[in-house]
Amino acid sequence: MLFLFRPYIDKEAQPDYDVVYSRKFGYLFIQFYPEGNGEDQITLLETSHDLLFMMFSWVTLDVLALDLEGEHWEAKMRLFPSEEKEIRKRICPVLEKCGKRSEEYKKLLNRFLRNYPDIFLDDTPF
Fold first, then answer.
1. Which of 9, 91, 98, 115 could join 119 via S-S bond, C-beta 3.0 to 4.6 A?
2. Residue 41 neighbours by CB under 8 Å, 6+ apart
3. DSSP sequence for 57-93
4. What is the DSSP string of 5-31?
5. Structural domain includes residue 125
6. Helix, coil or strand: residue 106
7. Is the distance from CB of 60 to CB of 86 less than 8 angstroms?
8. pLDDT digit string, tens, across residues 60-111
9. What backbone phi and psi angles, to 5 degrees, belong to 111?
10. Is residue 88 part of a domain?
C-alpha cells in the first residue's frame, strides 16, 4: 500500500516525515526535525491499518498547514468543512486504487475524520 502513497509523499508531504522499509523491522514512520524544534521519533507500522492511520494523520497535518479557513474553533478543534473536503480530495484517489479493500479503507477514513482529533486518544484507533 505504501507505493500508492509514494507520489504524495514525494511531492506534497511535509519534509520532516518519511516512511521507510527495513528488512528487520518492516515499515517505519520517521519524524525528523533537523532544526531541533521537535522530538525525533520512529514508529513501527505493523499493519496496513497502522500505515493508513499515519497517512491520514500526515495528510491532515499538511492540509491544516494550508490554513484554508483561518483559525480553528477553539472549543472543539474540529476540522472545517473545507479542510475535510481537501483531505478527502488528497486521500480518496489513493484509496480507490486499493481494490477490494477500498471500501474498508474509506470507512476508516470516515471514522478518522468524524473523530478527529479525539481519535489520537485511543490506543488502537482502528
1. 115
2. 30, 31
3. HHHHHHHHTT-SSSSPPTTT-PPPHHHHHHHHHHHHH
4. HHHHHHHTS-TTEEEEEETTTEEEEEE
5. no
6. helix
7. no
8. 988 888 877 665 555 457 888 889 999 999 999 999 999 999 999 999 999 9
9. -65, -45
10. yes
pLDDT, tens only, 10-60: 777 667 788 888 899 888 988 887 777 778 889 898 888 888 998 899 899
Instruction: Tell me how many domains the chain contains.
Output: 1
The residues, ordered by sequence, that sit 6+ positions from 113 with a Cβ below 8 Å of its Cβ are 79, 84, 87, 88
What was the pLDDT predicted at 115?
A: 92
Interior CA angle at 35 toward 30 and 37, to 5°?
A: 80
Is 124 domain-assigned? no
Q: Which domain holds residue 57?
A: 2-118
